[in-house]
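The freezer alarm interrupted the setup, so I double-checked each line after restarting. Inputs confirmed:
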Amino acid sequence: MLKKSLALLLMLILAVALVACGGDQDTTEDAGGTDETTDDTGGEETTDEGDAAAEDDGGKVEIFSWWTGAGEEDALLALIDLFKEQHPDIEVENAAVAGGAGTNAKAVLAARMQGNDPPSTFQVHGGAELNESWVAADLMQPMNDFYEENELMDKFPEELIDLVSKDGNIYSVPVNIHRGNVMFYNKVIFEENGIEEPTTLDEFVDVLAQLQDAGVTPLALGDKEAWTATQIFENLLLATLGADDYKALWNGEVGFDDDRVREAAEHFKTILGYVNEDHASRNWQDASQLVGEGEAAMTNMGDWAKGYFSNDLNLAVNEDYGYFAFPGTTEDFMVVTDTFGLPKGIENTETVKEFLKVLASVEGQDTFNTLKGSIPARVDADKSKYDEYGTDAMEDFQNNNLTPSLAHGSAAAEGFLTKVNQEVNIFVTQQDVDQFIEKLQAAGEM
Ligand code: GAL
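Predicted 3D structure, all chains:
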C-alpha cells in the first residue's frame, strides 16, 4: 500500500516537473531583430508540447502563421497563453514559419493545403489572399454559423466582414487591423535637423534631400524580402492615384498604363536614392532598428513596427520615435488584416472553433493587439488598453478612406503579387521606369 502511494507520488512529481520544464511556448527567445527571423525556412517550429492532460481530452490545435521573432511573436504567444488559461485541456502547436509578410510561410502552407494536410487554422489576409486562393479552391469551411452562434455579425466593421466573405459566406475571423501606410521616424534626428513631418510627396522629397545633406541616412529600407519595397510602391500608388483610383487599379478600371502609375514609379526611383546602402541584406526589423538606434531618420513600415519599437527596442512612442501617414496619403488607411479560418478536412473542427472563439473575443483581441501594434478588428474592444498610437490609429480607421494592401494580400491575387514583388526587386537595382511599367502591365493582363 505504502509502496503504491510512494510510486504514485513519484509519478505525480515527475509529471509536474515535466510540465514545468516541458513545452511552455513562452520560453521561445525572440530574435532581437536579426537575420534569424528570415533565415529559418526550415518549416515548422513546435514550441509547445502540451501537457499530459491534453492528450486525453480536448485534442490539439495547430496554429500556423509567420509570427516568429522580434516584433511578431509576443502577441501570438500572449493569445496562446490566454487560450491555454481558458482551455488547459487542449494542446496547442505553434507552427509558425519565419519570414516577414509570409515570405516562406505561404509556400509551406500552399504545399500543405495541396497535400491535404491543412493546419487546424492559419494566418491569412482578408481579401484576395483568402478568397481567391483558398475559398476559390473550395478548401475552406463557411463560418456563417460560427458568427451567428457567437453573435459576431455586428462586432466587426462591415468592410472587414466583406473582406473575409465570398458569395454570401464568411470564411475567417479577423484578429487585427494593421495600417500599412505609416512612416516611423527618429524624434531626435528630426529635432536636431529642424524637420517637420512631411505631408505631401514634394515635402517628403525635400526632407529626404535635407537629411542627406546633413549626413544622415534619410530612409531605412530592408528589402532582403521584396515586399518591403513593394509596400513603398503601393503607398506611392495610393498617393498619386488617390483612394478611389487606387482601388480601381485592382478591378481593372484604371490601368497600369495610367500616367499616375508612371508618376508613382518616378517617385519610387527618386526615393530609392535616399536609402541605406545595405538595404538588400536587411529585413524589416533590421531596417527599423536603424531608425530606433538613430542611424537612419525614417522608415515606411506597417505598424507591426510599432510593436517592434515598443516591445523589442523598448522605445517610447512620441518620445523616442514618432509616426505620420505616408506623404500624400494622410486621409487614407492602407488596411492589412490578419485573419484565421477553418480549412476543410481538419479532424477537430469543434476544438479549433474554441481557439477561434478566444481569438474573436474582446479579451483575445485586446491581449493580442496591444502587443502587435495593430488595432482590434472588433468594434467594441477596450480602447483604454491602447496607447496614443493605438487610439490615433483607431480614429483614423474610422475617418479615413480604407484601401486594401497589395503587398499584404488583400488587393490582388497571390500570383500577381508574386510577379509584382519580382519586378519591384528588379526595379530597385535597375531603376528602369519604362521596363517596370511594361512588366506591371503584362502581369496585370495575365
Ligand atoms: C504582414 C502581416 C503582419 C506582420 C507583417 C510582417 O503581412 O499582416 O501581421 O506580420 O506581415 O511580417
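Quick read of the result. Confidence is low (pLDDT under 50) at residues 1-57.
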